[in-house]
C-alpha cells in the first residue's frame, strides 16, 4: 500500500519526455555549432567530445565501484546520458567561443537537460524519488506526512486515533560523540489510547547515501505500519527512524570507527531515549531492527552483536559484512586499521564464537538475480583475535560469494547454527527502495509477533 500521488519519476511520460527533449536539443546544438565551420575545428570538437564522453563513462563507473553502489547493474541509459552530458559540456565550451547569445543559451539549456536525464536514470535505478512531489519535498526538507511536534503529541494522548503520528526527536550524543541529524519516531494509534500498553519498537536503518527520513518518504514505512494497525486494533510497533550515517555521504556501516561511533549512538543513545521519552518497552525481547541495503547489513550486525538490545532483525538486500570496498579500504576507512575492531563487527566471526542465542530471530529478504554483491569481498575475512585462531570459515564456494541472495543464505545458516530462528525470503525485484517497502510490509506481521504484539504471525515461513 502506498499513498503516492503526482507525476512519476520512475516511469511514464516525464522521464521519457526529459530524455527526448534533451536528445533533440543536443542534435540541434551540434548541427548549429558545426554547420559551416572549417574542417579542422569540427574534427577537434568531435575528438574532444568523444574523449569527454569516454572519460565520463569511465569516471562514473569508477565512482560507482568506489562507493560500492553497483547492487544491480546500472541501466544502459545511465551510461548513455553520462556520455551525452559530457558531449553537451564540450558543445557549451564551443558555443562560448562562437558568437551568438542564442547558441550559448541553447548550450546551457542542453547541458542542464542532459544532466537531468542522467539524474533521472540514476533515480530509476535506485527508486529514491518516486514522484515529482516527493523529490520536491525531499529537496526542500518539507514537513513529513503525519508529522507533529512533541508538545502536540503530548496533547493528543488519551484521544483515540486511527493513524499514527511521526515525531522529531533530538537524541543525545554525549556517549558516542556521533554528530547526527534530527531523528524521528512513529507512534502507532494504540500509543495514544487511554491506558495505552507498553509497545515494542523497531529501529529503521536506511541505505548508504541516506537521511533519517528515507524510510518515511521513500520506503513508506509509516503507511505500512498504519495499515497493520488498522487490522490489529491500533496496535503496531513504535518505529524509530535513526541516523546511522550523520551525513548523506558518510557510510559508517553502523560500526564504531573513524567515520563515527554509529553503533554506540544507535544502541546506547537512540534506544534509551525512545524508552525514556516514548514509553517503549525496554526489554530486548521487545526490540527489533530493520534495514535496507547498507541498513540491511546494519540490521544483521546489530542483531548478532547486540542481542542484549535487539531480539529480531530484518536484513533487506544487505551484505555479508560491513564493507567500504576492498579489504584494505574497508579495514582502513571503517576501522582505522584495527583488525580486532573489524572482527568485532563481522557477523560470521561473531556468530562463530558466540554462545547460542536463545531468543533471537532473523528474516532475510532479497531478489533472485545473480547480480554481484554491493560489497564484494576481495580477500579472506579478518581473523578474530579474541578466539586465538584463524578467521571465520567460508561456508559458501568462492564463486557464489558475489551473490547477495547466497550471502543471505550463508548468514542465515550461520545464525541457525547458533540458535537464531532464521528464514530467507526471495522475491522478484531490483535493489530499490520499492523492493525495501514491499519486503518490510511482507515481514511486519512476523516481526510484530516476534516482539509480542497479539494477533500476529509468530513464526517465519521459509520462501527461498
From TrEMBL:
Any GO molecular function: acyltransferase activity, transferring groups other than amino-acyl groups
Region of interest (Disordered), ranges: 362-405
Pfam families on file: Esterase
Alphabetical UniProt keywords: Hydrolase, Membrane, Transmembrane, Transmembrane helix
Residues annotated as transmembrane: 12-34, 41-64, 76-97, 106-128
Record keyword Transmembrane helix present: yes
Coiled-coil stretches: none
Xref: InterPro entries: AB_hydrolase_fold, Esterase-like, Mycobacterial_A85_antigen
Protein name: S-formylglutathione hydrolase FrmB
Organism, as annotated: Actinomycetospora corticicola
Amino acid at each position: 500500500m502506498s499513498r503516492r500521488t503526482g507525476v512519476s519519476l520512475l516511469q511514464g511520460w516525464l522521464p521519457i519526455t526529459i530524455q527526448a527533449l534533451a536528445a533533440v536539443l543536443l542534435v540541434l546544438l551540434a548541427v548549429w555549432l558545426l554547420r559551416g565551420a572549417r574542417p579542422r575545428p569540427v574534427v577537434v570538437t568531435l575528438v574532444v567530445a568523444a574523449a569527454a564522453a569516454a572519460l565520463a563513462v569511465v569516471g562514473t563507473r569508477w565512482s560507482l565501484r568506489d562507493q560500492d553502489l553497483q547492487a544491480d547493474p546500472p541501466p544502459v541509459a545511465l551510461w548513455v546520458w553520462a556520455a551525452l552530458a559530457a558531449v553537451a559540456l564540450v558543445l557549451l565550451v564551443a558555443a562560448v567561443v562562437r558568437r551568438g547569445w542564442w547558441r550559448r543559451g541553447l548550450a546551457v539549456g542542453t547541458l542542464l537537460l542532459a544532466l537531468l536525464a542522467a539524474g533521472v536514470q540514476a533515480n530509476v535505478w535506485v527508486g529514491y524519488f518516486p514522484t515529482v512531489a516527493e523529490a520536491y519535498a525531499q529537496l526542500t526538507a518539507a514537513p513529513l506526512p503525519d508529522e507533529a511536534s512533541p508538545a502536540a503529541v503530548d496533547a493528543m494522548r488519551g484521544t483515540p486515533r486511527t493513524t499514527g503520528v511521526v515525531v522529531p526527536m533530538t537524541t543525545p550524543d554525549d556517549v558516542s560523540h556521533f554528530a547526527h541529524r534530527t531523528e524521528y519516531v512513529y507512534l502507532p494509534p494504540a500509543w495514544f489510547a487511554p491506558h495505552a500498553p507498553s509497545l515494542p519498537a523497531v529501529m529503521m536503518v536506511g541505505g548508504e547515501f541516506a537521511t533519517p527520513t528515507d524510510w518515511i518518504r521513500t520506503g513508506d514505512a509509516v503507511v505500512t505500519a498504519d495499515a497493520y494497525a488498522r487490522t490489529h486494533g491500533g496496535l503496531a510497533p513504535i518505529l524509530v527512524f535513526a541516523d546511522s550515517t550523520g551525513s548523506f555521504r558518510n557510510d559508517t556501516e553502523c560500526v564504531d570507527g573513524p567515520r563515527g561511533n554509529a553503533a554506540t549512538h544507535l544502541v546506547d543513545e537512540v534506544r534509551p531515549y525512545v524508552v525514556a521519552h516514548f514509553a517503549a518497552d525496554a526489554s530486548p525481547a521487545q526490540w527489533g531492527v530493520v534495514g535496507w541495503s547498507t541498513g540491511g547489513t546494519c540490521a544483521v550486525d546489530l542483531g548478532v552483536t547486540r542481542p542484549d538490545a535487539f531480539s529480531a532483525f530484518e536484513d533487506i538486500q544487505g551484505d555479508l559484512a560491513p564493507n567500504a570496498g576492498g579489504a584494505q579500504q574497508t579495514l582502513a576507512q571503517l576501522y582505522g586499521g584495527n583488525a580486532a575492531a573489524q572482527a568485532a563487527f563481522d557477523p560470521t566471526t561473531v556468530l562463530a564464537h558466540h554462545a547460542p542465542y536463545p531468543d533471537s530471530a532473523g528474516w532475510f529478504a532479497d531478489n533472485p538475480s545473480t547480480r554481484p554483491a554491493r560489497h564484494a569481498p576481495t580477500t579472506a575475512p579478518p581473523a578474530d583475535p579474541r578466539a586465538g585462531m584463524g578467521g571465520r570459515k567460508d561456508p559458501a564456494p568462492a564463486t557464489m560469494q558475489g551473490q547477495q541472495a547466497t550471502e543471505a543464505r550463508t548468514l542465515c545458516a550461520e545464525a541457525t547454527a547458533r540458535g537464531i530462528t532464521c528464514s530467507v525470503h526471495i522475491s522478484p525485484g531490483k535493489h530499490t527502495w520499492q523492493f525495501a517497502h514491499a519486503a518490510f510490509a511482507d515481514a511486519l506481521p512476523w516481526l510484530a509477533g516476534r516482539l509480542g504484539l497479539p494477533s500476529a504471525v509468530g513464526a517465519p515461513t521459509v520462501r527461498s
